[in-house]
Design goal:
It is a single chain. The chain has helices at 10-15, 54-68, 98-107, 115-128, 148-151, 158-161, 172-185, 238-248, 252-261, 264-269, 275-283, 287-310, 321-326, 328-335, 347-352, 376-389, and strands at residues 2-7, 19-27, 31-40, 43-51, 78-83, 94-95, 133-138, 194-200, 204-210, 213-217, 316-320, 358-359, 368-371. The chain is built from 16 helices and 13 strands. With 394 residues, it is an alpha+beta fold. Helix content is 41%, strand content 20%. The two termini are 28 Å apart. The chain has 2 domains: 2-135, 2-Layer Sandwich (Nucleotidyltransferase, domain 5), CATH 3.30.420.40; 172-371, 2-Layer Sandwich (Nucleotidyltransferase, domain 5). The strands form 3 sheets. The chain has a 6-stranded mixed beta sheet with strand order 10-9-8-11-13-12, sandwiched between helices.
């Protein structure tokens, strides 16, 4: 469970002066050795102790907030909850009421590994903060502007009308934030630009954002489609899956575990899903680590080219996420053969842009290339405020 306490207002949003008062993360919930990390001001702590339930985790978070002087329960007016899947119904964030809850539960069939856990967090927070307004911010809502030709699968149409099997896309909060941030830095709005945003981390996706709206994105019905990821394969021939099942005599559960936990960078390299490790191993001569890096970069490059064509050009390519923000060699390799599209990276600028915001394209490059660290928590906080005050998000 990750959490942040953010002070914001319409005026602070307009001036980009929201204040992060505290942040923390609690991992391995349900065990005797849960890890509790917390930061408020200059104070940073990391401890190990038992945190057995999500309600316990949220109670622990508020004890930390109270102890730091950052906030009490009574101070918190709104709680934004990241919810992975909103189905087709939610095109923007929404107050969590009975109807919203029913729709989140219904969408759980489409995200069985995510939505039920998102709801656990909501119920726990609601019990501790009954007077606060709780808001759901959906990963999928930003991509609901995709046209039918972008989201439909070429399978019998009944599976769409009856079972809602289609491409939904994820990482919407990240793609929306970095596109907003690029526009802010260029004294415009998202409606002024055509952008290709690359969220590259353990989970990866690319999004084509045409004048502020998602035209297409690489993830599909589930977060498994598209780019090669840490442990997910990305695009994969369904026939290959059926062949794997027949050869290994795997059931549905075994195949799901294989595709979600043992594929991607880990599957190719056989050693790690961490790009830092793979770059290090490749530098020492590991052929499989090098192959994993090469395949990863090739897939991203291919999607950038596809979205450049889909939008008839782009004003900028933006890198975000753990890999996108920190792995300069990966960014360079992705962009090195895109010069014909006007995408040219400056080696010195790229090497200097590690975990910081900045342009890395060559001077005069027709298509700008930027690194913009994502801030999904800030966007969730801003959306929560906007929903409470009934202010449309830009």
């Amino acid at each position: 469970m990750k959490f942040q306490l953010i002070e914001t207002s319409p005026e602070q949003i307009a001036a980009n002066q929201d204040r992060q008062l505290a942040a923390g993360a609690i991992s391995k919930i349900g065990s005797a050795d849960s890890t509790v990390e917390f930061e408020a001001g200059i104070t940073k702590t990391k401890d190990t102790r038992a945190v057995l339930t999500h309600k316990d985790a949220i109670a622990e978070a508020f004890e930390l907030l109270k102890g730091s002087g950052a906030a009490t329960l009574e101070d918190v007016e709104g709680v934004g909850h990241r919810v992975v899947h909103g189905g087709e119904h939610f095109t923007e964030s929404a107050i969590i009421d009975d109807d919203t809850l029913k729709r989140i539960v219904a969408a759980s069939d489409l995200a069985p590994l995510h939505n039920p856990h998102n709801l656990k967090g909501y119920y726990a927070a609601k019990a501790l903060l009954p007077k606060a307004t709780h808001v759901a911010v959906f990963d999928t809502s930003f991509h609901q502007t995709m046209p039918p030709e972008a989201y439909v699968y070429a399978i019998p149409y009944l599976y769409y009308t009856r079972d809602k099997i289609r491409r939904y896309g994820f990482h919407g909060t990240s793609h929306r934030y970095v596109s907003y941030r690029f526009a802010y830095l260029h004294s415009g709005t998202r409606a002024n630009f055509k952008l290709i945003t690359c969220h590259l981390g353990n989970g990866c996706s690319v999004c084509a954002i045409r004048y502020g709206k998602s035209l297409d994105t690489s993830m599909g019905l589930t977060p498994m489609e598209g780019l090669i990821m840490g442990t997910r394969p990305g695009d994969l021939d369904p026939g290959a899956v059926m062949y794997m099942v027949s050869r290994a005599e795997m059931g549905l559960h075994e195949m799901e575990v294989t595709l979600n936990q043992y594929s991607g960078l880990y599957g190719i390299s056989g050693t790690s899903n961490d790009m830092r490790d793979l770059l290090d191993e490749a530098g020492k001569g590991s052929a499989r680590a090098q192959l994993a890096v090469d395949a990863f970069c090739y897939r991203v490059r291919k999607y950038i080219g596809a979205y450049f064509a889909a939008m008839d050009g782009a004003d900028a390519v933006i890198f975000a996420g753990g890999i996108g923000e920190n792995a300069a060699p990966v960014r360079e390799k992705i962009c090195q053969s895109l010069g014909s599209m006007g995408i040219r990276v400056d080696a010195a600028k790229n090497a200097a842009a590690v975990g910081v915001e900045g342009e890395i394209s060559q001077d005069g490059s027709p298509v700008k290339v930027w690194v913009i660290p994502t801030n999904e928590e800030l966007l969730i906080a801003r959306d929560t405020l906007r929903v409470i005050l009934k202010i449309p998000h830009p």
